[in-house]
Amino acid sequence: MMDIKEIVKPENLVYGKSELLIDTIMHYCPGCTHGVVHKLMAELIDEMGLQEKSVGVAPVGCAVFAYNYIDIDWQEAAHGRAPAIATGISRLNPEKFVFTYQGDGDLASIGAGEIIHACNRGENILVVFINNGIYGMTGGQMAPTTLEDMVTSTTPCGRDVDLNGYPLKMTELVAQLPGTSYVTRQSAQTAPAVRKCKRALKKGIRNVLDRKGTSFVEVVSTCNSGWKMSPAKANKWMEENMFPYYPLGDLKDGEKGNPVSNN
Amino acid sequence: MAKVRGAVVVDTEVCKGCELCVESCPEGVLALHLEVNSRGYHYSYMKNPEACIGCANCGVVCPDTCITVYRVKL
Amino acid sequence: MGELRLMKGNEVLAEAVIRCGCDGYFGYPITPQSEIMEKLMERQPWTETGMVVLQAESEVAAINMVYGAAGTGKKVMTSSSSPGVSLMAEGISYIAGAELPCLIVNVQRGGPGLGTIQPSQADYFQSVKGGGHGDYKMLVLAPSSVQEMNDFVDLAFELAFKYRNPAMILTDGAIGQMMEKVELSDYKKRWTEEEVVEKNGSWATTGKPASRQRNVITSLELDSDKMEQNNLRFQAKYRRMEAEEQRYEAIQCDDAEYIFVAYGTSARVCQKAMEIARDKGLKVGLLRPITLFPFPKNIVKELAPKVKGFLSVEMNAGQMVEDIKQAVYETQIYRKVEFFGRMGGIIPSPGEVVDALEQKLIGEEK
């Protein structure tokens, strides 16, 4: 029988914390997808040697403190305005890797105008869009992406589409815009899904470095506090309820200038 | 008989006991400890260390990046 | 002697922006200031100095583009007119809270609401008292000629960077649209990337090298003790502006018994009104605030003991008059402070200003 101490040696390390992830306890709830996606961004910026080139734009919402977790320069945006801020940074600093990190309340509701126009101009940025169908930080209210009949604190009887309209598919919308070159929908609930999501984010970053226009990576996520489920149950609920409405996969992978999917 | 052996080290103070690592482990290595850390969370630990193959699934899915994974070829 | 031209105020401002080494302009069309972006687009400064000019989808987006670009330590600006500046109020508050230097130009029109496209000074309060949420101040410069539309651009940027604070040029549709002779400034080079890092690398998001901590541009601080410290730091900065940056022009104030106080277009009207009044034998001077924040209250306090009263002449319902009253109050001596103004896009005539002087200040004395 091999002793654990003989395995736990630096030369045997296969998975550890990226140096760009700051040594602090994240404020997120247990099991929150934000932690996973933060980790992926930190790993990629680290692995691709982009620390000195990167400027992140943090949203308003649960990820408002993203700048406390990844060791790069950051700007904190007003609610929904991250794509405009990223535009300002990127236009004046075209050699930088600029990305926004936004939730569904931020991106799909109050910032719907800014994201559409940034994508339509083909701003050379990566947009990381965390869609968990709810407002997490303010306490679980309905988001534009909340599913029909889904219970939130402002739809206590479930989302009534006659009253509140329909769940908004932002990713399908921006895929129609000629300014985007890569539009994909991912998830991060299992190890294979996380690995796939990382490949998608990497492609998005590559596209920014290659000045290919806007890359848009949605990550269908959970909000187990807002959904009032355990993390494991939330993952299952997401697979059963979110994925049919928000199907995973690439919507567009091509060149700027094409209005529709060409994959 | 497995050709590899793995081991995971959990930073128990950072762990929030979300249990996603337990769910992701193909070999049933991990479980939540009956004890809690200083913030009151049941932390993850290797309940069946001999079964670990060092696949790193637990580390990959961990939202708090509190799992380090090691592997040796036998 | 610089290059002499006959130009429109708005166009001169655009020209001055290019010449002062500005790195970026983000704007949205609105009357009566659209010539600024039109002139910039026509001049294509990106081919000449490398300056970026971008038409945003809204004023909200424009001011946030300014936030992002200013956060990288570069010289950036926007321009708009009253309703558009209201839309920018959110972004301006964030810019002030994150302590970013930038230039915002407001070519005022009459309000409230959609109001009129004719000139106005009704955004005085919005500009000098805050405008958005939270306790913040902007440096506010008020040009009263096309020449000053040129000169104040460089000054505004200089002050903005000196204090890491948004600066505003507050003008109106009359000065924006008026043509006058102007001596254009000489070209200044844009800062190189190295100069930006050298000047502003201690706080700007220029990309984190191993040699420094990461820079974060934010106005957020959930810890109340720390947030109060931030506010105290801001207030100390605003007091320093008040101590060091009061600017004004005093015209024939030495022997004056009555003082017109007016800025921008209404100061031009008052200059003529002063001539008419002097022809009538009335000893009238003109105090023209150049900085509206900080308000030049020291000169008001200095003049107060020597004069019989002040008449604030504004194109609004009476806003700056409150700052004059405050300054006079601080002298602890009583002097009359009256107000005359027109609203809705009307520019007062010199004659009615003299009438107001006689009725409101002199009349009651008799």
TrEMBL record, chain A:
<dbReference type="GO" id="GO:0044281">
    <property type="term" value="P:small molecule metabolic process"/>
</dbReference>
<dbReference type="Pfam" id="PF02775">
    <property type="entry name" value="TPP_enzyme_C"/>
</dbReference>
<dbReference type="InterPro" id="IPR029061">
    <property type="entry name" value="THDP-binding"/>
</dbReference>
<feature type="domain" description="Thiamine pyrophosphate enzyme TPP-binding">
    <location>
        <begin position="68"/>
        <end position="219"/>
    </location>
</feature>
<dbReference type="GO" id="GO:0045333">
    <property type="term" value="P:cellular respiration"/>
</dbReference>
<dbReference type="InterPro" id="IPR051457">
    <property type="entry name" value="2-oxoacid:Fd_oxidoreductase"/>
</dbReference>
<dbReference type="InterPro" id="IPR011766">
    <property type="entry name" value="TPP_enzyme_TPP-bd"/>
</dbReference>
<dbReference type="GO" id="GO:0030976">
    <property type="term" value="F:thiamine pyrophosphate binding"/>
</dbReference>
<keyword id="KW-0560">Oxidoreductase</keyword>
<protein>
    <submittedName>
        <fullName>2-oxoglutarate ferredoxin oxidoreductase subunit beta</fullName>
    </submittedName>
</protein>
<dbReference type="GO" id="GO:0016625">
    <property type="term" value="F:oxidoreductase activity, acting on the aldehyde or oxo group of donors, iron-sulfur protein as acceptor"/>
</dbReference>
Automatic annotation (TrEMBL), chain B:
<feature type="domain" description="4Fe-4S ferredoxin-type">
    <location>
        <begin position="43"/>
        <end position="72"/>
    </location>
</feature>
<keyword id="KW-0411">Iron-sulfur</keyword>
<dbReference type="InterPro" id="IPR017900">
    <property type="entry name" value="4Fe4S_Fe_S_CS"/>
</dbReference>
<dbReference type="GO" id="GO:0046872">
    <property type="term" value="F:metal ion binding"/>
</dbReference>
<feature type="domain" description="4Fe-4S ferredoxin-type">
    <location>
        <begin position="6"/>
        <end position="35"/>
    </location>
</feature>
<dbReference type="InterPro" id="IPR017896">
    <property type="entry name" value="4Fe4S_Fe-S-bd"/>
</dbReference>
<dbReference type="Pfam" id="PF12838">
    <property type="entry name" value="Fer4_7"/>
</dbReference>
<dbReference type="GO" id="GO:0051536">
    <property type="term" value="F:iron-sulfur cluster binding"/>
</dbReference>
<keyword id="KW-0479">Metal-binding</keyword>
<keyword id="KW-0408">Iron</keyword>
<protein>
    <submittedName>
        <fullName>2-oxoglutarate ferredoxin oxidoreductase subunit delta</fullName>
    </submittedName>
</protein>
From TrEMBL, chain C:
<dbReference type="InterPro" id="IPR029061">
    <property type="entry name" value="THDP-binding"/>
</dbReference>
<feature type="domain" description="Pyruvate:ferredoxin oxidoreductase core">
    <location>
        <begin position="256"/>
        <end position="352"/>
    </location>
</feature>
<dbReference type="InterPro" id="IPR009014">
    <property type="entry name" value="Transketo_C/PFOR_II"/>
</dbReference>
<keyword id="KW-0560">Oxidoreductase</keyword>
<dbReference type="InterPro" id="IPR002880">
    <property type="entry name" value="Pyrv_Fd/Flavodoxin_OxRdtase_N"/>
</dbReference>
<protein>
    <submittedName>
        <fullName>2-oxoglutarate ferredoxin oxidoreductase subunit alpha</fullName>
    </submittedName>
</protein>
<dbReference type="InterPro" id="IPR052368">
    <property type="entry name" value="2-oxoacid_oxidoreductase"/>
</dbReference>
<dbReference type="Pfam" id="PF17147">
    <property type="entry name" value="PFOR_II"/>
</dbReference>
<feature type="domain" description="Pyruvate flavodoxin/ferredoxin oxidoreductase pyrimidine binding">
    <location>
        <begin position="15"/>
        <end position="211"/>
    </location>
</feature>
<dbReference type="GO" id="GO:0016491">
    <property type="term" value="F:oxidoreductase activity"/>
</dbReference>
<dbReference type="Pfam" id="PF01855">
    <property type="entry name" value="POR_N"/>
</dbReference>
<dbReference type="InterPro" id="IPR033412">
    <property type="entry name" value="PFOR_II"/>
</dbReference>
